[in-house]
Amino acid sequence: MDVVTALEALGGQGVALLDAIHSGQLDRRRLIDLGHPLSTAAKWTNLAAIFFGPTRSRRRQAAAVAAAREGRLSIDAMVVVDKHARKLLKDAPVDVWELRAELCALTGTVDEIDRAAAARVRDLNRRVTDAEKKAFGRRSLKGGKNSDAQGLRTVTVTLPERMMADMLAPLRDTAGRLRSDNPLLSYEQAMADAVVAHVSGGAGPAAPGKFTPLVVIGLPDWAKLQHNEGDETVFALTDGTTITGAELVRGRMAEHHLVGVYDPVEGPVNLYRESRLANTKQRTLLSAETILCPNPGCTTSAAECQVHHLAAWKFGGDTNLGNLSMACKVHNARNDDDPDDPPRNGRLARAPGRIVFHPPDGRPAETNRHPIRELSAAGLVAVGRC
Ligand SMILES: [Zn+2]
User: Fold this and answer.
1) CA angle at residue 146 from 193 to 169, to 5 degrees?
2) Tell me: the pLDDT tens digits for 365-381?
3) According to the model, what pLDDT value does residue 211 have?
4) Ligand 1 geometric centre to CA of 308 (Å)
5) 268 φ, ψ to 5°?
6) How far apart are the C-alpha atoms of 324 and 285, rounded to whole Å?
């Protein structure tokens, strides 16, 4: 068996692998001898104990295993499922085994399952009283103690999404200024310099016009909000975070601009060939439409994106909504702009009602399946909520 066939055979065999570990055919020592790091061996043996070990919910455990086998989940996908299932808060409306069975039925790449599972568990946890307070208890700053081979150290900061977005916004402003002073700085380098500058108090005055994220709301939900009935409805913000109706009403309304959702008709906001740069109105609509960069797997929020011409400006593309999309800096730069050049990186295009990515190898068009995008204006229109 060649190595590719071996990898293919292993791909959908997460359940079989865990079964082999649980039945003793494979143990931690053997996994390490096969070349896996201790951390992986430990993770898999713990996972085998969860999916095959003793539990009071044997029936639901069997249902989860059956779903994972049916969906041919890889071991990595099962690791991801369990990682999120563990974050279910105690008073959540479903039992953890029901949740595992549900998450084991997810399809897609490991990254897609990762994000869909995170969104689902988040959704369930929001319904727990004091969920935010409980999650807030898990905020942390870890690391910073070990040097790598180049003498560098790393810290990881964990915060509720809104606090993180609020903390990063001024850092991004500072990083932007540092980069316009020194174009050789990469984005990551500039962000690191910005952190140091802010912590040491040397960041200078804050840039005027603090960024305000937009909240995307379907019209029926807007009506519910006005009547204080939309407490549990979850809305997306153009900085890639989410907020519930209750949070919005609880005094945060004034901090955000609200965007009602409508079908973006062409006409009033088109600039044709007058200007290469999109206007604020267009940016607003495009941000509400995508929430994130539309490239599959990309997590850059619309707030950090650039406006991208689907048919390039230099080839005669108009600055009209139908020809525009938000795209992150990387994917904007990588896009195959010249329709006459052989495909290299693929390109974004507008399909009915959404932006799609055409891979360079001619595979069918893909979309960014990040769960938050279901709350984008395009997502809301697509499911007919307005
Ligand atoms: Zn991107």
Assistant:
1) 30
2) 999 999 899 888 887 76
3) 61
4) 11
5) -65, -25
6) 10
